[in-house]
Structures are given as structure tokens and as C-alpha cells.
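Example record

The entry below shows one chain as it appears in the dataset: sequence first, then C-alpha cells.
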Amino acid sequence: MGFFRAIVNAARDANEEAHGARLLRDTQSTISCIASLEGEVQLRAMLGYLQILGRLLGEMPNLSREGRIRLGKTMQDQARASFDSDVSGSYAKWMGGAWLESRERSSSSAQQAHFTLSAFSEYVRSTLKQKGGGTARNSRPANRKRIVGLSDSLKKVRLIVRAAVVMADSSLNAIMNDTFSRGYVFGCHDAALQDNGISDMQRCMAEASLSYSTLWGIDDGPRILQETLALQSDPEFQRGMKAGGEDTLASLEGGKVDCYALTPYLQKSRKGTKVPARARSKAATITRSKKVGASSKTSRGKG
């Protein structure tokens, strides 16, 4: 009895892995395709996906696990069948179906697919909110001087993050355990990308992933970014994101590294005191010349 049960369990696990691998592969391919769609078609696909998720969340309590899996697979099949006549609607339906099926699957690949689709939905909500509600970028003076080039802007972002960490006597790894700090770092990158007119979804993700890899390494950077995307609906994350965006735009406008919100937040949160996201410390500008001057004064004093 135990022998045959083991065979059944092994077959079931292999089946789950196969379904998970399919879901993950197709999810990655689909999101890549959506990123290359023309503006209006892409927007309809994104809006449709959010609307379908809303309906699914309402229907799920009335469905068993097997019922959810069957519905998810049916939606994917229907999406493939209607693709030629309704591109945006088909993408939206396919993602909704894959989101539902992957949620109920137990393999690590299926869970990764579900995480990716959930993170994508949060990215879509954030993007649509920024387009509709306006951002700090839209309110900046039209005649201000901007840091030239995306590469220089992202270098400035990394200087802001590293300077804030150093001044708070913290570490890059430590700040990733805090939701506000994750939001702050993400907001810095988001503001730099927007400030340089980068709106293409695929490029935004690629540029952010490269910058995160520069900060945390090629192995951890992309993983940290993916985990961060799933936090975008968290109020604490949103406060950090807003603070990071404001600090970055101020820094790009002035051409200097200003550490405003993150440094005092890290300092006071380490002492157990909650710091509002809008709290500001006096601008602390870190430049190589000041560091050299400070170290030389210390050396003379010791001598």
C-alpha cells in the first residue's frame, strides 16, 4: 500500500512541477510581449487585467481548489483562441487565468509565476496612478537644469542610497529588512527613470534591475527588486517611495547628493522611534572634497 501511494505521490508531484514550469515560462513570455505592445493596446491589456483580477477575487470563495484551477486553465485556453481578434483582451484574460491557476499550484515554479503576476498587477496600479494623479516630476520647474543622461541619474541615485546608509551607520543589507527603506530606494529609482522620460515598462525593469544589481550584486539585486514590487500597495512602502522620489528630484535638480528622509529614519528607527515619512533632516551633502578635508583635519589633530 505504501509503495503504490509513493508512486501516486511522485506522479502528482511531477505533474505539479510540469504545470509550474509551463506557467512560469508562459508568464515571463507574456509580460515581455505586453511590454512591447503599442501604447493604447498595452493600456487596455493592463486595465483589463486589473478588472479581471477584481472579478476573480469576488468569485474565488465560491470555487474549490480544483474549480479554480479548471477556471484558470479555461481562461488561458479562451485567451489563446481569441488572440487574433482581441489582442489586449486576450492578454488580460490569459494573465488573469494564469494568476488564478498558479495561485492554487504547489510547485515553486508555479508560486514564482504567481508572485510575478501579482507583482506585475501592483506595477500596473502604480503606473496608472502616476499617469492619472500626477507626480512630483510634473510639478518641477520647466526651466530647471537636469542631470544629463539616465546613467548619471542612476549613479546619483546609488550615491543617495549609499550616503544615507553610511550617515545612519547602517548597511545596504539591513535596510532591505524595512518596508519604508525598500520604498525609499524604489522611489529613488522610479523618480530617476521618470525624470529621464523612460516610460517603457521593459526598459524600466531592465534599468532598475541593473542598478539594484550594482547595489546588491548580480545574484541578490534582481531578487530584491522582484520582492520590492510586491510591496507597492503597502502604505509604509508608499510613504518611503514618495520620500525617495522627492529627495531624488531635489538632488537631480541641484546636482548634489542630499540625504533627507532616509538617514534620520534609519537612525531613529534603530532606537525604536517611528519617524514620519515626511520628516526631514538638514540637507547633508557628501562630496569627496569634504571627506578628504575632514580626514586631513583629523590627521592633523592627532598629530
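Notes for this example: The chain has a mean pLDDT of 77. The two ends are 83 Å apart (CA to CA).
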